[in-house]
Design a protein that fits this description.
Length: 202
């Protein structure tokens, strides 16, 4: 069995987060995901504080770690100024690297995300490029999104964005230099190879 604890200990978000947690449960009380899913950030901290490799493997292969919405609301209430959402980030990374996410229905959704959001990031430099969020790919958004998509330039600019423009602002044009730098970061940190591996998982 892989030593998951050792892998997680390489990530400061995990080490510092676990050290700081006193298991008070304030994060669970504020967490929107805990209100609707079988999800409990305090419990995840408690499980991990046991430093049990078999339990860790179960957690990394479970749906639970994929319910966090990464809103970081937990940080605003934790009396230790801790952020369980960051611990979840570290757990997800190891789950993705080791392939354990494939054992979870929620985790397998990462394949689709890697093919859309991940591909956008690797080719456009944006996680969400509005041009690529085509209404036919997201029928759940209904006719409102069809209208927004058709009028995306004016909607984006009326909301303070800078659609395909120079300078600052959401949905701005990224310069070749910026993209080169971003792609180099993704390549050197292993982000690119991890996204490609997930895209090809099925
Ligand atoms: S609020 Fe902070 S200290 Fe309390 S359980 Fe959550 S992370 Fe741990
Ligand atoms: S970041 Fe995750 S754990 Fe923290 S409050 Fe948001 S959903 Fe809950």
């Amino acid at each position: 069995m892989i030593d998951y604890i050792e892998r997680l200990n390489e990530d400061y978000r995990f080490c510092e987060g676990l050290k700081a947690c006193m298991n008070c449960g304030m994060c669970t009380a504020i967490c929107p995901a805990a209100a609707v899913f079988d999800y409990d950030p305090r419990k995840i901290c408690q499980i991990m504080q046991k430093r049990d490799n078999a339990l860790t493997e179960q957690l990394l292969a479970s749906d639970m770690i994929w319910y966090c919405g990464q809103c970081i609301g937990c940080r605003t209430r934790c009396p230790r100024n801790n952020t369980p959402g960051y611990i979840i980030q570290a757990l997800r990374k190891v789950s993705l690297q080791t392939g354990l996410y494939l054992k979870s229905a929620e985790g397998r959704k990462q394949i689709k995300i890697a093919k859309t959001v991940g591909e956008n990031l690797l080719t456009k430099g944006y996680c969400v490029d509005i041009d690529l969020v085509k209404p036919e790919m997201h029928p759940e958004q209904g006719p409102m999104w069809e209208w927004v998509y058709a009028n995306r330039e004016s909607v984006c600019n009326r909301c303070g964005g800078n659609y395909h423009g120079d300078g600052a602002g959401a949905q701005r044009k990224l310069s070749d230099e910026t993209k080169k730098e971003l792609f180099a970061i993704l390549r050197e940190t292993g982000g690119e190879s991890l996204i490609r591996k997930i895209q090809n998982a099925e």
